[in-house]
Amino acid sequence: MRLPYPALLAALGLAGALLFLASLLVGPAAIGLSDSLAALIHGQGEAVTLVMREVRLPRAILGAAIGAALGLSGALLQGLLRNPLAEPGLIGTSSSAALGAVLAIQTGVSAAFALALPLAALAGALASVAVLLLLSGPRGSTLTLILAGIGISSLATATTALILNLSPNPFAANEIIFWMMGSLADRSMLHVQLALPFLGLGAVLAIPAARSLDALTLGEDAAASMGVNLRRLRLLTVLSAALMVGAATAVAGAVGFVGLVVPHLLRRACDARPSRLLAASALGGAAVVLAADVAVRLIAPDRDLKLGVLTALVGAPFFLHLILRTRQEGL
Amino acid sequence: MRLVLDHLTVRRGPCPVLHDISLTLAEGEFVGLLGPNGAGKTTLLRAALGLLPAEGHSSVAALPPAARARAAAFLPQGREIAWPMPVETLVALGRPGRRPEDAAAVARAIDRLGLAPLRKRPATELSGGEQARVLLARALAQEAPLLLADEPTAGLDPEQQLAVMTLFAGLAAEGGTVLASLHDLGLAARHCTRLIVLDTGRIVADGAPRTVLTEALLAGTFGIRAHLSEGPEGLIFQPLGRVAR
Amino acid sequence: MSGFVRRSERHKGWQALALAAALMLALPAAAEVPQRVVSINLCTDQLAMLLAAPGQLVSVSNLARDPLASAMAGQAAAYPENHGLAEEVFALRPDLVLAGTYTSPATTALLRRLGVRVETFAPASDMDAVRAEVLAMGTALGRDEAARAMVAQFDADLAALRADPATGPRAALYYANSYSLGDKTLSGQILAAAGFRNVGAEAGLSIGGTLPLEVLILARPDLVISGQRYPGASRSEEVLDHPALAALGTASARAAMADRDWICGTPYVLRAVRALRAARDGLTE
């Protein structure tokens, strides 16, 4: 039995909405259901309102938006490179974005000019995708894609570690784990304001690319003969993915595997059409990251367990499974 | 005229790989593009479609991208199918519109290639021959007056090869135009209305099959000896052996 | 911010006392009294500088010169610095090396194998431990007299500063990464000595751990005490600038305290207690 596409989107959206609510209601401070909602909506109870509106709401919004961005950019990059292993974390986009963000913070540019943080992360993400395309060619063969990804992310992670270790701030040196694993703990509305415009712009740029990605299923020549402007498509996809991965990483660190697992799970339900997979992966990504962020708070309420730890625990086995399958298919 | 190429030249680095090609394809023609490996067949097809930069003029390449898709359909050699799309969805890629006539065109293409029973199957799970038919159906769904096909019979069993050639001949008989690069001179001689032979990037012969496939051309361009005779169902081509070029 | 505590005047008394102690030449040149002492730990650096006879202390660690971490950065500048590496320490030909119990065991083991006497000092977790540290350092340096005098002075000063925490205002120690401290820590004891109830302890922390921002907000502390900001930037410290924490400021005062007076169990913890007392008085006025 298979869900029709609109029903699939509705189901994913509903799951996302419920998890958004769960994200608002779960936290180390035990606040009753009605109290939380009353505080959130009507502002009843000063301290509780502060918690709901300034601590939990931004966290839930960022969880949904970043999850959507990661799912969507995974689906986009896979469509462009025609490879199910193309994922922002695996191909080094996230770690390069993190490098950009760390540079902006450590040089003090982001303190003087807040937008410098997402912009620097965007630049890092763009540079990594450009290098990847140079290394692996227009259709990323699995081998070159993964090898180039290992190279790019090792370099970016090492440089990030170097910068943090050289920082005069004693806390900075211990932050490499955050940039590698990601967390939504203690994010504020300031981060929402910073990230959302970039995430939104990235998502909007993905829309005109959708149909062209369908045609690209048959290869570049076939797509071009069907009227696809390949240069425009590449530009749109790369810019869109870089905007989303950059902004997401700038505020939440590198959360891996969402862009791998979500499109993989939803592909069949979308008739393997990249255009349909985009919207579905965005909704699915939001649900997955919200769920993971609820889970980290339930598993270790007082530990700040990193979000990426959970997504990697679930995602890495998927990755290995996909490698096995692509090997069997001789890709 | 369905396709006009005028002094088309493609260079890779300084040396031309396609040299000053001029030709005209009219409606109702099924043209076989022949030549040994590396003669420039694929380059000619891609240049004619505007898929690679070329000097000179191609009437299709000169069109804006959307109009190009209406003027010509292209079946590339690679037979790439990146995702496990159901057959019907994949064929519909050739006709992405949502009007009733788009759906009708997709249905016609599926019927024409006998894909109805495979309609819901993921294309990546089909056999090579079935995949070739699916991809051909995709190109046919475009219902463009001109079809360019790069080695459409490669890798197919004899029955499927014949089916493809018959289909192309049928398209031409209905008033369509087909330009297909082919390696099988026998199939080309039997089914095509016209043959164009390329050698090292130049047209060395162009005309009706019996006038093109001369002993001298077969020896000079392909390095073979062959016997050519008129059979009840058309020209019969019988290779006999290699010759020193 | 009204509740902001100004750093108290540098307290000169202890230096004067140390100097006086150093000038007492009553000690016999016993064989066990070390003549070349090297300290490789921030806290032993400070205790040794307070108690050592002139010329007895040969080198202190580079951390002792860091004005953010060390209460005696100025004095430390007078000593050659070391980086706690066995090789450079051994090259100083010490007859006693002072280290922390958390100093790399590889370093202390290597020094001991090379025949150097190494004394380790545990981090102090309450006021009694401060007394014990001072006395232990006195013994290690052969300066028991000076150490006893210093403890007496410490006790007198502490008694003068002490306030009852039972009825006092509620304060939260809140650092980078939402880290907070409970009662069984030196910082918690400093807080108690100054007459504050500890919100971290109320939230269930006995040593140290994460105090989630939302728990802090709901606890509504009268005072939120944070460490001094370090140069450069870090994501870990961003939580200290969280808008929700700023919004809390209408009800809760904020105070930034110099870490250097809180880190080590030396008599300088009294500076922290004194600063907190001033803050408490400001709150209860």
Automatic annotation (TrEMBL), chain B:
GO terms for molecular function: ATP binding; ATP hydrolysis activity. Coiled coil: none annotated. Pfam families: ABC_tran. It comes from the Bacteria. Residues 3-225 form the ABC transporter domain. Keywords: ATP-binding, Nucleotide-binding, Translocase, Transport. Part of the ABC transporter complex HmuTUV involved in hemin import. Responsible for energy coupling to the transport system. This is ABC transporter ATP-binding protein. It comes from Paenirhodobacter ferrireducens.
Automatic annotation (TrEMBL), chain C:
Coiled coil: none annotated. Keywords: Signal. Residues 1-31 form the signal peptide. It comes from the Bacteria. Residues 36-285 form the Fe/B12 periplasmic-binding domain. InterPro entries: ABC_Transporter_SBP, ABC_transptr_periplasmic_BD. It holds the Pfam family Peripla_BP_2. This is ABC transporter substrate-binding protein. It comes from Paenirhodobacter ferrireducens.
